[in-house]
Write a structure and sequence with these properties.
Number of domains: 3
Shape: elongated
Number of strands: 22
Structural class: alpha+beta
Number of helices: 5
Distance between the termini: 55 Å
Length: 335
């Protein structure tokens, strides 16, 4: 059966994210198509079909006629599951003149799986020379494949509170200002993305944290698509954003320790949404009661993780960035 079909399904997708399926074939060949999928996937949109010539029966869709022969497109949504990795498949059956051809497309559905491997009874924070020495850190690991976003929140029962550093507003303004200045040359090189870059800056001016709202989700989605379409634009955009960020970081936080945290993101696939918030520490034993809220890049949310009755012992008054309380494990480490 020679119909020269081409079928695209991504090999990987984060659970909860939309995925496309596209099928093209020789438009001179009248065919029928069925697409079957598991309970982990549901159909959102179907493109280029005759409304009277298709049927959905359970997890199978049958299409007998197309508005324009030669193309079929589907938008599907994956569902978040208890398992962090699922090997799934989509089965396409094409019928032409009584002959049937079956094509199986494999897809791996993944999500983060954040685990706390060790919670110390006491975290010791001591000043040695000009540096803070933090012993007995909370050990955290992402046992799944997707990037996990975490945020530490102190509870009312905690004797220690989380605060934002006083320089955060100045830092944010300087980062945005530097980025806007560097963005001028980027706009000249990529004029097709000029409006998108302006919208990105506006979202950063309005909100500097990870935020689950439609405006930011829309801008992030469009930037992601632009990155996929133009890798050079992605590299240049990330480069000027990184330079703008790092060149101003010393306003609010010791640069050396934060670079170590940034390296751990790449290794462990865990990003803190408030890494430069600090614990205000005094020379005493104090109890930290907190929780980690969890989400991912598809805005799925997960059960928070309790961090209760952790004693913080210090010999000085200091502000401790919360990322420095954690040890981020990678896939090659056990504990």
């Amino acid at each position: 059966m020679e119909i020269h079909e081409k079928i695209y399904v991504p090999e990987y997708s984060i659970q909860g994210e939309d995925i496309p399926l596209s099928i093209t074939w020789d438009k001179s060949k009248p065919i029928t198509i069925s697409v079957s999928f598991s309970e982990n996937i549901e159909i959102k949109e179907i493109y280029n079909i005759d409304d009277s010539e298709f049927e959905i029966n359970g997890n199978i869709i049958y299409i007998n006629k197309f508005e324009i022969n030669g193309y079929l497109g589907l938008a599907m949504q994956t569902k978040s599951q208890n398992r962090s990795t699922i090997d799934d498949e989509i089965i396409v059956r094409i019928n032409y003149k009584g002959e049937e051809k079956t094509i199986i497309k494999k897809i791996k559905l993944f999500r983060p799986d954040i685990k706390i491997l060790y919670v110390p009874e006491v975290i010791n924070i001591m000043k040695i020379g000009d540096k803070l020495d933090i012993q007995n850190k909370i050990v955290i690991k992402n046992c799944g494949k997707g990037t996990g976003l975490i945020k530490l929140k102190a509870k009312e029962s905690s004797e220690l509170e989380l605060v934002d550093l006083g320089g955060i507003e100045e830092f944010t303004k300087k980062v945005i200002g530097d980025f806007v200045e560097r963005m001028k040359k980027l706009k000249e090189r990529y004029p097709q993305y000029s409006d998108l870059m302006d919208e990105f800056v506006k979202t950063r001016e309005d909100n500097t944290q990870f935020d689950n709202n439609d405006t930011i989700k829309n801008v992030v989605s469009r930037i992601t698509k632009a990155f996929e379409a133009n890798r050079e634009f992605m590299d240049d955009f990330i480069s000027i954003l990184y330079i703008s960020y790092m060149s101003n970081l010393s306003i609010i936080i010791p640069l050396e320790s934060f670079i170590k945290y940034l390296k751990s993101i790449n290794i462990g696939r865990i990003v803190m949404s408030n890494p430069i918030s600090v614990l205000k520490i005094t020379p005493s034993y104090r109890t930290l009661n907190a929780e980690l809220t969890l989400t991912d890049l598809a805005y799925n949310t997960y059960e928070p993780i309790e961090l209760a009755n952790i004693k913080i012992n210090s010999n000085i008054d200091c502000n401790v960035p919360i990322y420095s309380l954690f040890k981020f494990m990678n896939d090659l480490e056990d504990s």
